[in-house]
Amino acid sequence: MNSLKKIKKYLTKQKIDFYLINKNNDYLNEFIEPNENRLKKISNFTGSMGFALISQDGQSLYVDGRYTLQAKLQSKQFNIKNILHLKNDLKKIITDNKTVLINPKLFSVNFLKNFNTKNIKYFDDSTQNKMKPEQVVSLNLKYSGLEIKQKIKKLQNSISLKKNFVFLISSPENIAWLTNLRSLDKKFSYIFNCIAIYKQKKIYIFTDKKIKIKNNKYLIFKKTKDLKNILKDVKEIHFDQKTTSLYYFNLFKSLKIKTKFFDDPINYLKSIKNNNEISNLKIAHTFDGIAIVKFLYWLEKNKFKKISELDCQNKIENFKKKNKYYLGPSFETISAFGKNASIIHYNAKDYKTNYLRKNNLYLLDCGSQYFYGTTDMTRTVAIGKQSQHKKLYYTLVLKSHIKVSNFNLKKNTLGKQIDLLARKLLKLKKLDYNHGTGHGVGYLSNVHEHPPSISKYSNTKFYQNQVISNEPGYYKDNQFGIRLENLIFINRNRKFENLTLVPFDNTMIIKNMLSLKEKAWINKYHEDVFEKINKFLTMNERSYLRKLCLKIN
């Protein structure tokens, strides 16, 4: 089932009307192995989220606004549709008494909860990766800030389970937080594939990976096939329908176990970083700031030579690798010049070689993983002379960024309220951007973590020590893209405080568009960047950084 031709042949033979594919693996992870990416095999689409709906006589690819342009370029055999229309399209198909084929391991209970399941057909096309040993380590207290027993106590205080009731933890990143375990063999996100059962103050971890961590007082490791044995005396199982696949829900029903949906409390617990984690994150962002300033200096010296987007991507990676604490990127670096930067999640590896040329903008969005935490930042840099219009857009995005940073958080502030303010200046010019303004960030975990979030639809609130991105932007299709992203956290005064230490491009700022308060914010930010970064640079790099951080009057 790895080509359109084979899928259509199968649908005809089985007398099934539609086949629905997504990009998930059996654990509903954001980052998956290449052989697990069914969506890419079928459509050539390389984005992080999407769905393909295939019938005997046509096919559609559903993506969100970040990927509309990219999908049109990569998936020319598909009709490209907005992901917001998918559920209505499915509802119409099922209401019309047509059948839809899915793999139940790849879809959450939540995704299918409002559909008539009698018209949904199941089959399993899961691909097992080879059972090679995985280097799983336990974070010591210096990095985790809390021991396993303390985290289990927090979980215990968040849920109430009667005798013979258990909690299924279906999110691998939540298990990683609870157990302080990380896999160093993973790419981007250092969590390993597993599910877990919380039962009588113990965590039973089910995985088919070969790991060297031994059973202890709190953790008991089992093979996935042993799950049924652990469940044999269970009367009721609690789980989060957003992260639990339909496969497990069907399994519990077949075992006649009563089920109860609830929000996994670990989502909230892990979003609030402890003081060790916040201190470590400041170190991680210092490491990143040093590498990126070195890269910006290199770019300044070489920008009119024949260098490509991939050359830039490799160069920033090389600067980061010089730090002995660097483990790897937290996502695939976005290195995009000119019109490619208008593809919001552009990946230079997916396209033909593109060189930087004069008189357009270069966008760099990159992140890192250290034992000291996870980073993510974006800067847009002028290559050559820029039009007044581009400077106008850049300054508007920077002003929007400052509005988020200075937002007066109240107890009941919602993400959508901040998002509304972030877009206000752009909306006055009838401009907007097709992505959220901010996403939560994990600690040596997923770079995208929920809660918190800042978007048009976000009802999440904000709590001390949560970490979130601040990334408004503007994109002109097939011309250029601008995004300015810092990671910020909520400090003890309920103010957003910057973690990212990278200067903005002051050649792109129209100074008379800034208020005195905005000028003061930029000057204070650049003063902070220079103070914390300059001592780790060469003399020439330090002079360059001083120029980037000159005060705006």
Task: Please describe the topology of this protein.
Elements: H1 4-14, E1 18-22, H2 38-43, E2 51-55, E3 58-63, H3 68-74, E4 79-82, H4 86-95, E5 100-102, H5 109-112, E6 120-122, E7 133-134, E8 136-138, H6 141-144, H7 148-158, E9 165-169, H8 172-179, E10 181-183, E11 195-199, E12 202-206, E13 210-211, E14 219-222, H9 227-231, E15 236-239, H10 246-254, E16 258-261, H11 265-271, H12 275-302, H13 309-321, E17 326-329, E18 334-337, E19 360-366, E20 368-370, E21 373-374, E22 377-383, H14 388-405, H15 415-428, E23 438-440, E24 449-454, E25 467-470, E26 473-476, E27 480-483, E28 486-490, E29 496-498, H16 516-533, H17 539-548
Parallel strand pairs: 1-5, 3-4, 5-6, 7-13, 9-15, 12-14, 15-16
Antiparallel strand pairs: 1-2, 2-3, 8-10, 9-11, 11-12, 17-20, 18-19, 19-22, 20-21, 23-24, 25-28, 26-27, 28-29
Description:
- Helix content is 33%, strand content 22%.
- It contains 17 helices and 29 strands.
- The mean pLDDT is 95.
- Helix 12 (275-302) crosses helix 13.
- The radius of gyration is 24 Å and the shape is globular.
- Strand 26 and strand 27 (480-483) form a beta hairpin.
- With 553 residues, the chain is an alpha/beta fold.
- It has three domains: 4-122, Creatine Amidinohydrolase, Chain A, domain 1 (3-Layer(aba) Sandwich); 133-271, Creatine Amidinohydrolase, Chain A, domain 1; 275-548, Creatinase/methionine aminopeptidase superfamily (Creatine Amidinohydrolase).
Q: Can you count the helices?
A: 17
Mind telling me the C-alpha Rg? 24 Å
Helix-residue proportion: 25-40%
The CATH architecture name of the largest domain reads Alpha-Beta Complex
User: Which stretches of 5+ consecutive residues score pLDDT under 50?
Assistant: none
CATH C-level category of the largest domain: Alpha Beta
Q: Would you count the extended β strands for me?
A: 29
CATH superfamily of the largest domain: Creatinase/methionine aminopeptidase superfamily
Tell me the strand percentage band.
Answer: 15-25%
> Quick one: overall form?
globular
The side-by-side strand order for the widest beta sheet comes to 4-3-2-1-5-6
* Integer average pLDDT: 95
Kindly report how far apart the N and C termini lie: 62 Å
Number of domains: 3
The major sheet is characterized as: 6 strands, mixed
Structural class designation: alpha/beta
Within the CATH hierarchy, at the fold level, what is the topology of the largest domain? Answer: Creatine Amidinohydrolase
